[in-house]
């Protein structure tokens, strides 16, 4: 399984755009990249998933360069409620995938 | 997205007793379910993987006789913490994934269970 590396923590302010980068140098050809958000005492919540280039949904964008060795989660105009831990996971589709979590990035949004 | 319901959300039990945690996939069939444990300010640690109708696969260092996992149907898996001790106090989270035909790797997580052993 591809190992992921993220910054341990980040700070931002309300209204700013936040970009969290994840390194996955050993990503396999058929691996997808998935980001989760976790609030204290809650289970992780799916944010976005992608394979290459750019994916956008109502809450975030995911940028994946051509070599796919990293990915960047972009949160536009964060608010206090975006304070959470963000995890980047990589793995193949189908029955063999076991979601394995790294340390994640603790994002604190300040007023 | 799909919904995974975990129950109870919080439980306090006496040392030496057993506690059962349920994990249900509400609107899809979960061929595979995962159980995690999370200590304060740490990441999720995978405890075991269970496939419907077969024995769970435990991660190294996880006692299978202490953490009993049953996945008897495609929508329900249970984790029983037997003879609980204070060091078993933790946040337990389940996750469910659709079957072999799933197109991607999205896994859905329950809301977690805070276990406190006194």
Topology (SSEs and partners):
The complex is a heterodimer of chains A (111) and B (118).
Chain A: E1 9-13, E2 18-23, E3 32-38, E4 45-50, E5 53-56, E6 61-64, E7 70-75, E8 84-91, E9 105-110
Parallel strand pairs in A: 1-9
Antiparallel strand pairs in A: 2-7, 3-4, 3-8, 5-6, 6-7, 8-9
Chain B: E1 4-7, E2 10-13, E3 19-25, E4 32-38, E5 45-51, E6 57-58, E7 67-73, E8 76-81, E9 90-97, E10 108-109, E11 113-117
Throw out a few tags for this protein.
heterodimer, A: 111 residues, mainly beta, five-stranded mixed sheet, four-stranded antiparallel sheet, 9 strands, 0% helix, B: 118 residues, seven-stranded mixed sheet, 11 strands, globular
Describe the structure.
The complex is a heterodimer of chains A (111) and B (118). In chain A, 0% of the residues lie in helices and 47% in strands. Chain A has no helices and 9 strands. A 5-stranded mixed sheet of chain A has the order 1-9-8-3-4, with no helix packed on it. Chain B has 118 residues and is mostly beta strands. Chain B is 0% helix and 50% strand. Chain B starts with a strand and ends with a strand. Chain A binds chain B through residues 32, 34, 36, 41-46, 49, 87, 89, 91-95, 97-104, and chain B through 1, 4, 6, 31-32, 34, 36, 43-46, 49, 91, 93-95, 97, 99-100, 102-112, 114.
The helix/strand series of chain B, from N terminus to C terminus, equals EEEEEEEEEEE
* Spatial gap, N to C terminus of chain A: 38 Å
Q: Name the overall outline of chain A.
A: globular
Percent of residues in helices of chain B: under 10%
Q: What is the string of helix and strand elements of chain A?
A: EEEEEEEEE
Biggest interchain interface, per-side counts: A-B, 25 and 31 residues
The strand order across the widest sheet of chain A is 1-9-8-3-4
Give the helix tally of chain A: 0
Mean pLDDT of chain B: 91
Integer average pLDDT of chain A: 94
**Can you tell me the overall shape of chain B?**
globular
Decide which structural class fits the backbone of chain B.
mainly beta
Could you give the distance between the termini of chain B? 36 Å
Care to count the β-strands of chain B?
11
SS elements, strand count of chain A: 9
Strand content of chain A: over 45%
> What does the oligomeric state look like here?
heterodimer
Which consecutive residue ranges of chain B, at least 5 long each, have pLDDT under 50?
A: none
Radius of gyration of chain B, Cα only, in angstroms? 14 Å
Runs of chain A with pLDDT <50, length 5+?
A: none
């Amino acid at each position: 399984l591809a190992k992921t590396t993220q910054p341990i923590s980040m700070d931002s302010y309300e209204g700013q755009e936040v970009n969290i980068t994840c390194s996955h140098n050993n990503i396999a050809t058929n691996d997808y990249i998935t980001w989760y958000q976790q609030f204290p005492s809650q289970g992780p919540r799916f944010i976005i998933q992608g394979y290459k280039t750019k994916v956008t949904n109502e809450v975030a964008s995911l940028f994946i360069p051509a070599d796919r060795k990293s990915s960047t989660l972009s949160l536009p105009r964060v608010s206090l409620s975006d304070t959470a831990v963000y995890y980047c996971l990589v793995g193949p589709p189908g029955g063999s995938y076991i979601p394995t979590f790294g340390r994640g990035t603790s994002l604190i949004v300040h007023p | 997205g799909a919904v995974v319901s975990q129950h109870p959300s919080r439980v306090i039990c006496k040392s030496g007793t057993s506690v059962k945690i349920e994990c249900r996939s509400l609107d899809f069939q979960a061929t595979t379910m995962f159980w995690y444990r999370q200590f304060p300010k740490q990441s999720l640690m995978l405890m075991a993987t269970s496939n419907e109708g077969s024995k769970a696969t435990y991660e190294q260092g996880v006692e299978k006789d202490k953490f009993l996992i049953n996945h008897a149907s495609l929508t329900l898996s249970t984790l029983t913490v037997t003879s609980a001790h204070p060091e078993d106090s933790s946040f337990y989270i389940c996750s469910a994934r659709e079957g072999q035909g799933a197109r991607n790797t999205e896994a859905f997580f329950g809301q977690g269970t805070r276990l406190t052993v006194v």
